[in-house]
Amino acid sequence: MTRTTNHNDNETDNPEQHLQRVVYLLSRNKLVAGFVQMQDERKELDESLVHEKNFTELQELLDMLHPADIAYILEALPLDERLIVWEMAKLEQDGEILLETSDAVRETLIATMNSNELVAATGQLDADEIADLAPDLPSHVLDDLFQKLPIAERERLRAAMSYPEDSVGALMDFDMVTVRKDVKLEVVLRYLRRLEEMPDHTDQLFIIDRNEKLIGVLPVNLLLINDPDIEVSKVMSKKMMKFHANDKAQQATHAFERYNLVTAPVVDIDNKLLGRVTVNEVMDFIREESENEALNLAGLREEEDLFAPVWKSIKNRWVWLAINLITAFIASRVIGVFEGSIEKLVALAALMPIIASIGGNSGNQTITMIVRALALGQLNTNNTKKLFAKEIGVSSVNGFVCGSIVGLFSFIIYENASLSLVMTMAMTLTFLLAAILGVFVPLTLQKLGRDPATGSNIVVTAILDSGGFFIFLGLATILLI
Predict the structure, then answer these.
(1) Does 314 lie in the same domain as 288?
(2) Which of 20, 162, 258, 295 has the greatest number of CB atoms lying within 10 Å of its CB?
(3) 82's torsion region: left (phi>0), alpha (psi -120 to 50) or beta?
């Protein structure tokens, strides 16, 4: 979750330019400092002057940037330069910058901070924001934070940390405005004027009773345009989109997109108001889910720092590479079974990659459709069979069309009608296999409680390589040899 900070437009309009400026200042300091070190006289004084001149300009640039822009710069810098910039970031921004960085980069920054610095940085944040950082903080730092927080904030932090990462409770923000239904709008307006600032994204106020149970909402626009002498109960709305803390966060993202929500209340099983979800938390969740899905589809175990140590990157990538290596051996043995056929008809070796390549692409298309449908909650027991039949139909037509084109190509090159027929049949059957795997692999992963996007394309591609080769070479052996 991110905290909105007021900055001028020209300070945040182009993060790439700010990054280029930071890189230039850092490189200039290295260049000039290296030249000064070659001099014998007044070395220490000159080094001090060079450092002050270059880094004063860098400090001024960092001081005016939004925490999100500083986080962007930190993620794009090698570790040594990243730590220089991190040390120069304003102390009061440390917590917000940590919130904005990726998990992998945040880990490198936290490693350079002692307990006092971490407590000072995170102590400036709200309970829900501290909960976002909690998994990356040492346990003794969390203990110190609990001791220093006011009792109310302490309880909020415990509540926020108790919810699973994929639940609405984990997205919940405690900063909101609540009023009673039996007061006049003028009273509400006076109450709002006494606040130092309105909570971010406040488009509605929440109406609660004496037991803090949610009974309605008061849109801000209705508060402003109605007679101040009218009671809240006369203009409030009982129709609202609300969530329970244990609801899946994915449900909230769909509702925000479908109904164009800005905020929505979160309640417990007794309808007691716990907090709210805002559009910025939802957008952050969608972005993180998209990034994780992209990583999972590539077979990466976790988000990786661009400048992570070599060994750490190796550990992050080796699992699916090892699986690919095993499946490659399997595919090679499938080809080995048909060595005799390939020796008798060398054209088979030239045509095999076409089957594997196009079949893999078809499978990945099906996977993308299924994973998206699962993410949107569009698949259920009633429509799975219809979707499967539809994918079989699409793959049959696409396989036959592509097979016919490839068959014609092989006939033109090798002038062998039987080989052309084998190519058409093999392509059609490979597309059908791709459709079957593309549907059942993600569904099976979901039933096993795993992310259906995690490595699905790698598994399907690996099986299709062996299966496509087996189909093609098997048909060739039967019909041609």
Answers:
(1) no
(2) 295
(3) alpha
| Collapsed DSSP state (helix, strand, coil) of residue 101 | coil
At 206, which helix (H) or strand (E)? Answer: strand 204-208
Q: How confident is the model at residue 10 (pLDDT cuts 50, 70, 90)?
A: very low
Distance (Å, rounded) from C-alpha 270 to C-alpha 478?
69
- The total domain count for the chain is 3
> Which tens digit of pLDDT belongs to each residue from 112-124?
999 888 988 888 8
Shared-domain flag, residues 186 and 140: no
Please give the structure tokens belonging to residue 199. 């909570």
- Measured over the CA atoms of residue 325, residue 327, residue 333 and residue 334, the dihedral's sign is negative
Q: Report which DSSP code applies to 136.
A: G
Structural domain harbouring 236: 178-297
- Residue 349's CATH number: 1.10.357.20
Helix (H) / strand (E) containing 218: strand 214-219
Q: Which of 110, 172, 171 is nearest to 140 (CA)?
A: 110
- Position 35 scores a pLDDT of 42
Shared domain for 139 and 90, answered yes or no, is yes
The C-alpha atoms of residue 386 and residue 382 are separated, in whole angstroms, by 8
Backbone phi and psi for residue 391, each to the nearest 5 degrees, phi listed first: -65, -35
SS3 167: strand
- pLDDT reading at 11 higher than 50: no
Is residue 1 situated within a structural domain? Answer: no
pLDDT, mean over the chain: 84
326 and 421 both lie in a single domain: yes
| Alpha carbon 144 to its chain's center | 30
Do 284 and 430 have their domain in common? no
Whether residues 424 and 345 fall in one domain: yes
Domain boundary among 132, 165, 198: 165
- 8 Å CB contact between 409 and 392: no
| pTM score of the predicted model | 0.71
Per-residue pLDDT reduced to its tens digit, 76-135: 999 888 998 998 887 778 899 999 998 889 999 999 999 888 988 888 888 888 998 998
Q: Is residue 412 included in any domain, yes or no? A: yes
Rounded CA separation 375/257 (Å) = 14
Do 289 and 319 share a domain, yes or no? no
Among 297, 323, 350, the domain-final residue is 297
pLDDT value for 219:
96
Specify the pLDDT at position 33: 54
pLDDT, tens digit, for every residue of 448-458?
777 776 667 77
Residue 154 falls inside a structural domain: yes
Residues 469 and 417 in one domain: yes
Give the amino acid at 55. F
Distance from C-alpha of 399 to C-alpha of 468, rounded to nearest angstrom: 12
Q: Are 120 and 324 in contact (CB under 8 A)?
A: no
Which whole number is the average pLDDT over 145-156?
Answer: 86
